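Write out this protein's structure.
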Amino acid sequence: MRRVVAVKALRPEAPMLLAIAPKPRVEVAPVPVSVPTPVLASEAAASQPAGDDVIPHYRTKMPGSATLRYAVSRGMLHGSGELQWRPQGDQYELKLESKLGGMTLLTQVSRGGFDAEGIAPVRFTDWRVRRSTVAANFQREAGKVSFSGSSLELPLEPGVQDRVSWMVQLAAIVAAQPNLRTPGAKVVMHVVGANADASVWAFKCVGNETVETDMGSIDAVKYVREPRGPNDTMAQAWLDSKHHFLPARATLRSGPNDEGFELKLQDVIGNP
């Protein structure tokens, strides 16, 4: 298991609206950009609960192309949202959009490819109403992450995700490793936002819970990411086993005074 040093969170952005092992099985083609060769932990070690600052190597199984439609709420405001996942060959595009009364409030887009750790973002953009677009650039050949709105540069950690790709990466890990669906199991990853904020996100499995949606009752596996500071993001995700463990519901909240943001599944188009 490799040793990874956690990156201290910087200016956390508001919530959205979320021994050497054998060569790993990744069920997608590798990203066509040069990436640092990871030092792999054993599969046995990856199956054990990890400390929040230790990130094992996980096997991944990527979902097929799909669009998930959600009811979106933030406090007393209610609208609609859509998560579009488009893998194509060795590349992918992932887009999350939220609307209220026909007006787009948020658009987040992640583009990149795949590597031995799963999803390998190359560029993440974040646009919100009344704000300019900001971006995080994952410079894989240089081994760093740079930002459009900041001169700060961060080291590019193996398996690092952005503020939207974590949802599909979590689904891909849980789909590939059934042992991580048991209460107390953890999935740990670095997550970077477009505002030069970064932290380790450790998702702890709570167990099975039923989620009531427009599609009926969904038997989901719940994961919780506890905040690491007073204004850090708390994330909860209920993963739908019938749709490749993509979120049937998700909530995000940054700090005790934040109203929080919720996604609840309404429809799935495609066969993830």
